[in-house]
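Pilot study result, target chain (272 residues):
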Amino acid sequence: MPDLTITGKTRVYGTLAHPIDHVRVPSVMNPLYEQHGIDAVMVPIHVLPEELEDAVRGMRANRSLGGLCVTVPHKVTITGFCEEVGASGRRVGAVNAVRFDEGRRMIGDNFDGQGYVAGMKAGGFDFAGKHVLQLGAGGAGMAIAFAVAEAGAASLSIANRTVARAEDLAHRVHKAFPACITRGVEADADPAGYDVAINTTSLGLHAGDPLPVDVERLDPATVVSEIIMIPEETALLKAAKARGHAVHYGRPMLEEQIKLIAAFIGCPFPAS
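Predicted structure:
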C-alpha cells in the first residue's frame, strides 16, 4: 500500500454541506486517493447557510484547499460566489463542484446530470433516440433533464406535482437542445410508451413512501431507473423487478460523478 501520510504537501479538498452527517463523498474519495497513491485528502466542511459568505472568504484564503464538492443547501447560493460557471451549472443555476485557480478565483460546474448519464451508459443504456419519462423537476432532476436531452433523447416528458415547474424546465431544456421534444406533464400522467422512467424525486428514501409512478401502467420493456442510493433497492425498483422490468440503481450515478468531479477540481484518478 502506498504511504499516504498527510504532510504539508497534501492537497486538501472538501465536501460542503449542512447538515453534514449524511455526506458520503469523503468515504468514496479517500479510499480512491489511497488506492491510486494520490497525495490528497477530502474532509467534510460543515457550514450553515447564513455563514456561507464568511466560509467562502476563509476557503479562498486557504491555499491548501484545491476544490469542493457542494451539496444541499449550498448548490444554488455558492454559484453566486463563482467568478466562472460551466455550461451545465449555468443551465441549472446551481453547481456541485468548485475549484480554486492559482489566483483563488472560484470556478464551478454541475455534474449531477453528466454523472447520471454516464452511470446509465456504464450499465448498458444509451439515451440516443429514446423516449424518456422523468419523474420530478427539482434538485438533481433539473441537471438530469438537460443531460438526457444532450445525450440524444428523442423526447423527454417531465412529470411533476407542480406542472408549471415541469413546463418551465421542459421549455429551458428544449431551448438548449431543440432536437429533443420536451413537455411538462402532471405527476399522474399516463406513463405508457416510454423506453425509460427515471425517478428523480425523493419518494423512496423512506419506508412507506408512495411509488412515484404506477409500475402496472408502464410498458413491459420500459427500463426503470433510480438516483436514490440509500436504500439501494427502493420500493420502486422492487416493484419494477417483480414485474420483470430491467432496473438501474442509484449508485453508478455517484461513482461516475466522482470521476468527473475529481478531474474538474484538479485531482483526477488514473484511467482504468
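One observation from the pilot: Helices lie at 25-36, 52-61, 87-92, 112-122, 140-150, 163-176, 235-242, 251-264. A full batch analysis is planned for the follow-on phase.
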